[in-house]
Design goal:
By secondary structure, this protein is an alpha/beta fold. The chain contains 8 helices and 11 strands. It has a single domain, classed as HAD superfamily/HAD-like (Rossmann fold, 3-Layer(aba) Sandwich), CATH 3.40.50.
Length: 221
Amino acid sequence: MIQMLLLDLDGVLVFEAEPPLVAATELLLLHETLASDIAALEMPVVVLTHRSRREAKHILQAAGLAQRLSGVIAAEDLFLAGIRHAPLRMLAKGLRKDLVLSVVERKFDVDRARVAFIDDRIDNLQDLVDAGLGLAIHAPSRQATDQAVLTTFDFSEACTLIRTWDRTRPQSRTICLAPRTLALSRLHHTGLSTTVHKHHPFNIARRIGRILRVSVSGRLS
């Protein structure tokens, strides 16, 4: 049985949409009943994001979720975990989310084999499955480039999968959720853009590190 849920932020809880879907760049809430769905799970629910802690808290406050979660694991935590446990791997591959599984186990006293994670990037999910994650759930998330259409998923469907998943039965540890088109209403709008956070020192350092890794990789190949 799953005992804890990790949630990515972008593409899972919110989506930073561009025109013509919205008038100007804005973070949209993807699920209207998210707070009640999280409460109904009756397990620790933690955000795991590549955004900085300051960004993540700003977004969660705007979404009204700051008090509904058991914690936030942000880019700074990934960096510290990498320094402590896999510095060479982090230098080569950057801030991979599987770096924090040992942190999750220690902090929440839950075996990683009983943890589920919802993310919109399959590479992140595969890293965690390879590192022993119990259940990886892939969330469809995209905005059509030529029209005002946003594709997401049904969070209640994901919750049902989490409640019924049993690791003792032969089944896939990676599940892909069915896509659905989001019909925007005023409840989805936050009026928030995080463009200003791109100039945060931590984010600038991450971009520089990414450029250096790509440069070194190109020379080696």
